[in-house]
Each structure stands twice: as C-alpha cells, then as structure tokens.
Amino acid sequence: MKPRHAAALALVGWYLIMPPPGPPRSTGANTAPPNDNAPLNQWTIRNSFDSAQACDAAKQKDLDTAATDLNKQDQLAEQRQGLWPDNFSDQEFLVADQFEYATEALCISTDDPRLKTN
Q1: Residue 34: what are its φ and ψ, rounded to 5°?
Q2: Among 42, 48, 77, 92, which residue's beta carbon has the most beta carbons within 10 A?
Q3: Burial profile 32-56: b = 16 or more Cβ within 10 angstroms, e = fewer
Q4: Where are the beta strands (DSSP E) in 1-118?
Q5: Which pLDDT score, from 0 to 100, does residue 82 have?
Q6: Is 76 exposed, middle or buried (0-12, 13-18, 19+ CB in 10 A)?
Q7: Is there a contact between 111 and 12 (Cβ–Cβ < 8 Å)?
C-alpha cells in the first residue's frame, strides 16, 4: 500500500448513529419508535470513534444497558401485577423504545456517501 493511501485510510473514522423517531404512537403515549427506514443522512450521530471495533463495543454497551433496563421493567411489572399509575404505559414504551433504538443503531464509516445530504 502506498503511503498516501495509508494516510487516507487513517483519516476514516466511525460514527455510531441512531435512527430518527418515527410517527408518535396512536395510544396517546408520548413516545415514538425509531424510524429505521429513514435515509441515513437523517439519523443522529450518537458518538464518533477511531475504529469500527470501538464503535461496535459502544453499540454493544448501549444494547446491554437497554436490555438490562427492559428486564428490570418486566420484573417490576410482574411484581406490581398491573397496579401501576396511569403514566406507567408511557414508561413501558420509553424503555421498550430505548431497546429498539439501541438495536437499530449502526456503526458507519464517516466517509459513507449515504451520510451526505442531497
């Protein structure tokens, strides 16, 4: 590999991106699931990294945190056996959405042409 090619590759970083919110839920809850069909240039950059491995590790950490929160929410729901305040369904959606956003997140090269706006 020529030195100039190696230098160009060294400048490429990685973004951990999250999809934008989709349409609000019709249930009246103040939450929205991710819109993973949106063009990548509409996604939010959560963080940037020097390597794909570091990006993947951060994505996995977010996913693990979201899964833990979802499990806690399920355990609380079982313990309370449906005796929740009215806003609990909103909280359920927020935790479920957190997991879905973490699942849909992508690690993408900073020079990916799909990130450019038209």
Answers
A1: -70, 150
A2: 92
A3: ebbebeeeeeebeebeebeeeebbe
A4: 14-18, 44-49, 106-109
A5: 57
A6: middle
A7: yes
Which among 42, 25, 29, 44 is positioned nearest to 101, based on CA atoms?
44
Nearest residue to 33 (alpha-carbon basis) of 24, 45, 44, 46:
24
Domain spans of the chain, in order of start = 14-115
Contact by Cβ (8 Å): 21, 38: no
Contacts of 114 (CB under 8 A, 6+ apart): 39, 40, 41, 108
Q: Which residue has the tokens 């990548």?
A: 40
CB 104, CB 34: distance < 8 Å? yes
Residue 25 in contact with residue 117, Cβ under 8 Å? no
Structure confidence by residue, pLDDT tens digits, 77-97: 776 665 655 555 556 777 888
pLDDT at 13 over 80: yes
Place of tokens 């994505």: 59
Sign of CA dihedral 40, 36, 108, 59: positive
Would you state the torsion angle of the CA atoms of residues 74, 78, 83, 84, taken in this order, to the nearest 10 degrees?
Answer: -10
